[in-house]
Amino acid sequence: EVQLVESGGGLVQPGGSLRLSCAGSGFTFTNYAMHWVRQAPGKGLEYVSAISSSGGSTYYANSVKGRFTISRDNSKNTLYLQMGSLRAEDMAVYYCARLRGNWYFDLWGRGTLVTVSS
Amino acid sequence: QSALTQPPSASGSPGQSVTISCTGTSSDVGGYNYVSWYQQHPGKAPKLMIYEVSKRPSGVPDRFSGSKSGNTASLTVSGLQAEDEADYYCISYTGSNNLIFGGGTKLTVL
Questions:
Q1: How confident is residue B96, by pLDDT bands cut at 50, 70 and 90?
Q2: A103–B45 C-beta distance less than 8 A
Q3: Which end of chain B is more exposed for a tag (fewer CB within 10 A), N or C?
Q4: Rounded to the nearest 5°, which phi and psi values hold at A88?
């Protein structure tokens, strides 16, 4: 089955760190650029970060630049998001999504919840 | 960079048609035919409904259609059904490997 499965979410204190993972299966992971998209409680979708298929290029929203690092291990079919200096406004469900060449997401994971609270 | 503008809400009765707009600029919606639409039910992941302005992935009912005029893209749902009640988001390419998201529209089936 073609799917993405996120993990690693949880409760973290402000200023803390967390690493999210997204495991891809049922498709050739290395062929696709991947994104992280988040959704704060009751809010809309927000772009977080992106990485090219090879991992050689990375992109970040201004709101997370310098605090989050996206990476991937194509040998493990896994995407990562290392999050640091976490703030209350980072609290959200984080989705990983597969990007098709003509700029649309055709596959999404179910999401993992990150709660930032003391 | 501001989000694409979508109406916060839209509604229609079963069997009716409803259109949701997504307004951007000539640098995003108006500049590229790379607008996509996503449906999200509460507690679920987004689902691709339309890509490249008007193309429908397999499995998406033909009641869903997309179009674009100038800087505004639109999603039309015809023959509304109860299961169409959800949030809908548009996303557009904006050049230089960037995407811009709409704020979302809550569709209510009356």
A1: confident
A2: no
A3: C
A4: -55, -35
